[in-house]
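#structure-requests
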Amino acid sequence: MNAALRIAAGLAELARTAEATSALAPAVAALARRYADTIRRGGTIFFAGNGGSAADAQHLATEYMVRFREPRRPYAAIALTTDTSLLTAVGNDLGFDQIFARQIEALGRAGDLLVLHSTSGASGNLVAAASAARIRGVAVVAFLGQGGGPLKALVDEAIVIPSDTVSRIQEMHLALEHLIVEVVEEEVDR
């Protein structure tokens, strides 16, 4: 397949995935309310994921801390994926499955929100983070794909993208998260 046809096919697949995902709009709106309520109560939103989802965690925490559309006050948000010294120490001393859980144990408080991104829903470190959050009284939501995996049963709310294609799932996660921060800014700072 030549490059132009491959790109057209990829965009068509993305459009089909977005169309199927639009059915999740009410659930995504409920998540936006949960994010806004967390911020209004003075809670922190924590983001975590692996690989491309780790990059999304950093991207999203920045949207909340700095701004999305208009200048506004900062919202408390932390990507649990950014401290290389901490990540490597925990990975070495406690095991890779504990890299996010350890941070939630130290930083998470009742009234906070942990947002997990996983295309498979099977990452051991995200499962451990969800369990640690439960113990600390931190609410947990997840953006998932491929049916949701075991993580789906461990969270308060899950958005499961109807796809098995990793790149399409990640693209939908980021698109939905951008829509959520747009709603949050409108609701919190109006």
